[in-house]
Amino acid sequence: MNYETVIGLEVHLQLKTKSKAFCGCSTEFGQEPNTQVCPVCLGFPGSLPVFNQTALDYAIKVALALNCKIQEYTKFDRKNYFYPDLPKNYQISQYDLPLSLAGYLDIELEERQKRIGITRVHMEEDAGKLIHQENFSLVDFNRTGIPLLEIVSEPDISSPEEAHEYLTTLKSVIQYLDVSDCDMEKGSLRCDANISLRPVGAKTLGVKTELKNMNSFKGVKDALAYEIQRQAGLLDSKKTLIQETRLWDAKAAQTLPMRTKEGAKDYRYFPEPDLAPFIIKEDKIAEIKKTIPELPKEKIKRFVKDFGLSEYDAKVLVALKETAQFSEECLKEYRDSNKKPVANWIIGPLAALASNNACEITDLKISAASLVELIELVEKKQVISNLTGKIVLEEMLKTGKGAQKIIEEKNLAQISDSGSLNVIIAEIIKENPKSVADYKTGKANALMFLVGQVMRKSSGKANPKAVQDLLKEKLESV
Amino acid sequence: MELSRLTAHELLEKIRNKEITSEQIHSDLNKKIEELDPKVKAYVRTSHTLNPEPSVNLKGIPVSIKDNICTEGYHTECCSKILAGFNPPYNATVINRIIASGNSFLGLKCNMDEFAFGSSTENSCFGPTHNPWNLECVPGGSSGGSAAAVAADEAIWALGTDTGGSIRQPASFCGVVGLKPTYGRVSRFGLIAFASSLDQIGPLTKDVRDAALLMNIISGYDANDSTSVNTPVPDYTKDLINDIKGMRVGIPKEYFVKGLDPEVKAAVEEAISKLKSLGAQFKEVSLPHTEYAVPVYYIIATAEASSNLARFDAVQYGLREDQKSLIDMYKKTRQLGFGDEAKRRILLGTFALSHGYYDAYYLRAQKVRTLIKQDFDNVFKDFDCIITPTSPTPAFKIGEKTDDPLKMYLSDIYTISVNLAGIPAISVPCGFTKKGLPVGLQILSQHFNEGALLRLAYTYEQNTGWHKIKLKL
Amino acid sequence: MSIDKKTVENVAHLARINLDKKELDKISGQLEHILSFIDKLSSLNTDNIAPTSHILPISNVLRKDELRKSLPIAKTLMNAPAKQGNFFVVPKIIE
C-alpha cells in the first residue's frame, strides 16, 4: 500500500547565556564534572531559583524569529518525575501558559517552499548527564539548569528530507540570532521526532513512534527513513503498531525500542510557587524585535534582487551568518554588474580551502577586499587563469600577501600577446602532426588537446581563450 | 541573676551598659539547657557543632533556630531520618542577617514536627518536645521546640516557621509571643520548603518588643528569593506604642463557634473587653469562607510538599537504603526515611495533583484560596486588625490526637486562613486555663501591616502583663 | 470522591514510596477519611473564579546574567552517600 508520512519535531536548544537559568553557575561546556554547580542547581534543600533576564530575552527573540505570538502572561510550572539527572526530581518547565504559540518556519524544498507550523516555543531547564557503567551510573550536574528552549513543530513534515531541511533552516535562523551554539555534538541542540504513517488520503493519524537519541541532522534523517520502512513493513503485513519510544542506533543504523516504563506518565504539572509569573508587554516585544537581524530568508531574497544571484547561490552564501556578511562585502566591492563570479569563488575555491583547513570561510585570514582583488584579476582583467587563481589564493592564505603582489613576484601573469603565444603554438603544431590531421578531418577534440598542450608548455600562464583563437587561425593556414 | 530569664532587649541594654558580656549569656543559657532540656527536649541533640566558630557564636544575643533553617557547619535535618547527617553548604538568608546584625545563632537546633508536618511536635524523628507548662502536654507545632525553648528560658529568642500556624499555635500553647510575617517579608532562601506559597520564617519571643527587634533583623528583600518583596522595612520598634485609641478591630463570627474551648473563649473575650477599655473599636465581621480553609490548605500545602520533598532521593545527601536498582533505592529510602505524617501528606499531595484529579482538587483549592483572600480584603477595607483565638483549645496531651490525623488538622482551624491569604498575624499570651495552661490571642492584619499587629499586641501586653508570669520548672 | 487502595498504590509509586500491606491499609483508610472532609469544597461554586498561585501581585522577577562562584567540589560531595571521583553514584537504572 502507499502511505504518507506524518512527522513532528521537538527541538531542545541550549541558550548561550553566561550563567545558568536560575543561578549564577557557568554554562561552559566540557568542564570537570560537578564543578559548575551550587545549592540552587543541585536542588539543595532550602535553595530557591531566580530567573535569568538574558535567558528570557533570548527566548522571546527566538519565538519572534519563528513568527510565534508572545503570550502576555506566562509562568513556569513544575514537571514532576523521578530521575537521577534531575536533582529536585522536578523540572522547571512551562505547561499550560507557555511563552509563545502558533508560529511557523518556511523551508525551501526543490522547486517550492513549504511552511512548517510551530506549535509552541517554551522555556525550561536542562537536566544533568548520566554516565552508565555496568552496575551503576555516575551523575554530573554541570549541565543541570542551563536554560533550554523547547521548540515543538506541528506534524507538518512529510519526509525525512523535509525534516532535515527544517532543522537546517532552524539552525541557520538561530545562529543568525546568536543565542545558541546549535551544536548537536555538544548537545546544545537536540532533536526528537514523532513519526506515523497512514494510507494516502486517510484522515486520521496512524500510531506514532517517538524517536530519540539522534546525534546529528543526518541521524534524524536516517532514523526517520528507517522508521518509515519499519512501520510500512508492519502495516503491510497487517501487524499492529504500538505507540512507543525508540532509540536510534547510528552504528547499527536501526531504531530499537526503549525499555518501556511501567504505567502511563503522570507529570503532575502545577504552577511553580517559587517563581513569579512574567508579564510581557508590547514595548518589551518591540525592544527585542529591534535586536533581530535580517534573517536568512530575507537575506536570500535581497541577494537575488540586489546582486542578481541565483536562489541556489544566495542560499549557500547566506547559510552561515558570518559567511553571509563576508559575501555581502565581496559582492558590494566587486566592480561589475555580473556578480556571479564572486559567488562562484566563495562557494568553490574559498569554501574548499576552508574545508581543507577544517574551519569556516571567515576563519581564513583573507579579507573581502583581497579576495575581490583576486577575482577581478582572474575574471575581469584576465591577468591570470582560473587555475592560476586558485594557486594564488592558496599563496595568499600562506603568506598574507595580496594577489597582485604574488603574481608579480612569482611571474604568474597570463601570456596573452600573440607574439609569444605564436612561438609556442608553432612548436606544438610541429610536434603533434596526428592531432593536426585529426582536426582537419573535423574531430573537435583535437583542438582542445592542442590547446592543453600549449597551456602545458606555457606552465599554465597562457591565456586559454587567446590560445584557442590563435590556434584555430594557425590550423586553418597549415 | 539568671540571664537566660531575660528578654533580648533587656540583655542588649546590659551589654550596652557593660554590665554583662555575650559569653555570660551563652554560659547561662547552656546551664539552663543542661538543666531543663532532658525534660523539655526543645533541642535536637544530634545537631552537634561540626564547624565551631566561637568568634561568630558568642556575639550579641544568640537566636535559637528551628531545624528546617539551613545553618552552614551545623546539621539541618528537619527532624527527619531522611536528612540524617545533612550538613548544608550554605546559610539561610535569615542566618546571614542575624550574623550581620552582630548577633549569633545557637548551634543546637530546635525540635519540630518532621518537615513542619504537624501541630504538636510529636512527628519528630527525635521524639516529642514537652510543654514546659505541663510536661505531659504537647508544646504545639510544628515550631514546638522553638516555642518551648523560649518558654522554658532555654532560649532568649528563637526563629520558627509558619505554614499553617506553626509559629502562632505553639506560641499560644507555650505562653510566648509568635509572629508570622506577611508572605514575602522575610526571605525563604535556606528554609527547607514545606509549602512554598505559604511558608514564612518568624520570631518566637518572650515579649512583643523582642518580636519587633527580631523582625528588624530578619525582614527585607532578598535577591535570592523571587517571592521576597522589595518594599522598605520600617523600624518595627517604632510601632511599640502604648495607645490604640480609635483602632478599628473586627471579630469574625465564624471563629467563635462550636469546638471553641470555653476557657479559651472566656480568655479571648476578656482580652477584647480589655482592648475596648483601652480605646479600640470593635465590631463583628464575617469571613464567610472560613470553613473551607482547612480543606483548601491540606490540598495546596500537601501538593506543594509532595513536589518539594521529591528531592529526598538518596542521591546527593541524607539517608540511603542501598538497593540493586535505582527505583528500589528510591522507594525503600523514602519508606524508611519519612515518618507516617510525611508519607500521608506526600501521598495526599501527589493524589491532588495526579491525572484526573487535578481540577477537582488542586485547581478548585486554588480558586477557593482566592475567595478566602477576598474575605480578608473586604474586612480590611474597614478594619485595621482582626482578633481571634489562636487555637480552639489549650495544649492537649501528648498522644491524644496522634491516631486521628484529621482531628490534628482541625487544631489549626484558626491559623490556616492567614497563610492562605499571605497576611501577617501575631499570637500573644492572654491568660491561663484553670489547669495552668497558657491561652493565646491572635491578631491579624493586612499585607505588610505588621505595625498594626505590633501596636495592638504591645498595648495589650503592657496593660495586662501576662508575659511576666513565668513558669517554675 | 473517594480513594481506593489501587489509587493509593499508584500514587505511592508516583511518589516513589514503598508501602507494605499494613501501611497501605492504614494510609488508605486515613486518606479516605481526610478526603471525605476535603470534599466539602465540591459544594462550593467556583465558576469564573481565578485560581491563586501567588498571593502577592509580583511579576517579572529577574536577575542579571552574571556569574557567581560555584561550590568547591569538596562541599558539593560532602553529603554524598556514594561518590566516585567527582561524580555522585546511583544504582543501576532499571525502570
What does it look like?
The complex is a heterotrimer of chains A (478), B (473) and C (95). In chain A, a hairpin with a 2-residue loop joins strand 7 (100-109) and strand 8. The mean pLDDT of chain A is 85. Chain A has 15 helices and 17 strands. Chain A has 3 domains: 3-288, no CATH class; 296-410, no CATH class; 418-477, Arc Repressor Mutant, subunit A (Orthogonal Bundle). Chain A has 478 residues and is an alpha+beta fold. In chain B, helix 9 crosses helix 11. Chain B has one domain: Amidase signature (AS) domain (Amidase signature (AS) enzymes, Alpha-Beta Complex). Chain B is globular and about 70 Å long. The two termini of chain B are 17 Å apart. With 473 residues, chain B is an alpha/beta fold. In chain C, strands 2-3 form a two-stranded antiparallel sheet. The longest helix of chain C has 18 residues, at 21-38. Strand 10 of chain A pairs antiparallel with strand 3 of chain C.
SSE topology:
The complex is a heterotrimer of chains A (478), B (473) and C (95).
Chain A: E1 3-14, E2 51-52, H1 53-65, E3 69-70, E4 73-74, E5 77-80, E6 90-93, E7 100-109, E8 112-125, E9 129-132, E10 136-140, E11 147-153, H2 160-177, E12 189-199, E13 209-214, H3 217-236, E14 244-249, E15 254-257, E16 270-271, E17 278-279, H4 282-289, H5 296-307, H6 311-318, H7 321-333, H8 340-356, H9 368-380, H10 386-399, H11 403-410, H12 418-431, H13 433-440, H14 444-457, H15 464-477
Helix pairs in contact in A: 2-3, 5-6, 5-7, 6-8, 7-9, 9-10, 12-14, 12-15, 13-14, 14-15
Chain B: H1 8-16, H2 22-40, E1 43-44, H3 54-57, E2 62-66, H4 93-100, E3 104-110, H5 144-151, E4 157-162, H6 168-174, E5 177-180, E6 200-205, H7 208-218, E7 248-252, H8 262-277, E8 281-285, H9 293-308, H10 326-337, H11 340-353, H12 359-380, E9 385-389, H13 405-410, H14 416-421, E10 425-432, E11 438-445, H15 450-464
Parallel strand pairs in B: 2-3, 2-4, 7-8, 7-9
Antiparallel strand pairs in B: 1-3, 4-6, 5-6, 5-10, 9-11, 10-11
Chain C: H1 5-14, H2 21-38, E1 62-63, H3 73-77, E2 83-84, E3 87-91
Antiparallel strand pairs in C: 2-3
